[in-house]
Amino acid sequence: VQLQASGGGLVQAGGSLRLSCAASGRAFRLYAVGWFRQAPGKEREFVAALRWSDGSTYSADSVKGRFTISRDNAENTVYLQMNSLKPEDTAVYYCAANERTGWGYVRPYQYEYWGQGTLVTVSS
């Protein structure tokens, strides 16, 4: 499975961005897709995840009500809609995925596949 993340950029506080994660290869076998982020000098942290079969989602408390994860089955793509962005959301955002079953994973080591990061910078 290959994952391609895109959509990052520079935005002012309060603005919005939509990130995309396109899956290829054995994408039809994916069980879940997640987004993580890593700010300079900090550990990679969980943002949100989606179960491919039924679209169920869960997200970190820090982004609830502001970020929404969704999917387009036909395009094998998962999106992260980010609204009301804050300077503390500045980070490199990564998408990750699993073929193995398991729900509620929030640790990077729990994900099998990773895309390259896309930088999100929120100015104050």
Task: Give an account of the 3D structure.
This protein is an all-beta fold. It has no helices and 11 strands. The chain has strands spanning 2-6, 9-12, 17-24, 32-38, 45-51, 57-59, 67-72, 77-82, 91-98, 113-114, 118-123. Strands 2, 4, 5, 6, 9, 10 and 11 form a 7-stranded mixed sheet that branches. A 4-stranded antiparallel sheet has the order 1-3-8-7, with no helix packed on it. It is globular, with a radius of gyration of 13 Å. The chain starts with a strand and ends with a strand. The relative contact order is 0.32. The mean pLDDT is 95.
Comma- or semicolon-separated keywords:
mainly beta, 11 strands, 124 residues
Helix and strand run: EEEEEEEEEEE
Rg of Cα set: 13 Å
Strand content: over 45%
Note the gap between the termini. 37 Å
Helicity level, as a percent range?
A: under 10%
What is the mean pLDDT? 95
General form: globular
Number of strands: 11
Helix segment tally: 0
The low-pLDDT segments are none
Sheet with the most strands, sense and barrel status: 7 strands, mixed
